[in-house]
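Residues pack. Consider this:
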Amino acid sequence: MNWGVFEGLLSGVNKYSTAFGRIWLSVVFIFRLLVYVVAAERVWSDDHKDFDCNTRQPGCTNVCYDHFFPVSHIRLWALQLILVTCPSLLVIMHVAYREAKEQRHRAAGRDDGRCIYPNPGKKRGGLWWTYLLSLIFKAGVDVVFLYIFYRFYRNYTLPRLVKCELPPCPNTVDCFISRPTEKNIFTLFMVVTACICVMLSLVEAAYLIGKRCRECLLAGSGESHQHSQDCALSHTEPVGMAGQVFHGVDYKPPTASICPTASSPGTLSEEEALP
């Protein structure tokens, strides 16, 4: 495994995830992937070799092992981890597609100050749907594999002794599983971590939907508030026109007559005006 490429993928997933997504990534990487690589794979390495039946009939051990263990735990977990982590890579690919489209837009000379994606990693539009569907897909994959494990291995546990009477076994034979207690502990641990991942994915999906609904409600209330303000302004009187009375066209404003007085300059009496 190329750990450099894997580290780059993990950093990309962590960059475009929410807080719940980062917790989910930590649980998958530490408690599922590392446990699978370091411990669980070694525990099931001798599964078929140490499956013993009290008979020497050729083929009886193989038939009984295939009947009780149709699919190995290790292979089921490997397939589960691959399918669970693929949707996160789709989110990274969607962001990379946005960035490449923005670069082509600028290189084509159509950069008129307007960006197609101002923030390519922001979960809006198609990227929001891609992220939401990836969460639903991851939770669905874990639920399906939990059901498969439950159908193959009742209560997610392995018995110490199984009885097999399938041909070519001559009669009912007893078969013994190697290290059943250790395998049960690892199986329950992987089941619990898968349940935690399902819960985190559903909580993150509910968080995204709730946040989106809240933004839509705030945008709708802001538009209605602006509309009510515009209506109120359109019904108010113009500034400076309050209290004024409008009259007809023939209306003449009254004029005040000033009576001349003796002390007024520029006015002469009748006697003084005669020569």
Observations:
- Residues 14 and 22 are 6 Å apart (CA to CA).
- The chain is about 60% helix and 5% strand.
- The two ends are 133 Å apart (CA to CA).
- Residues 235-243, 256-275 have pLDDT under 50 and may be disordered.
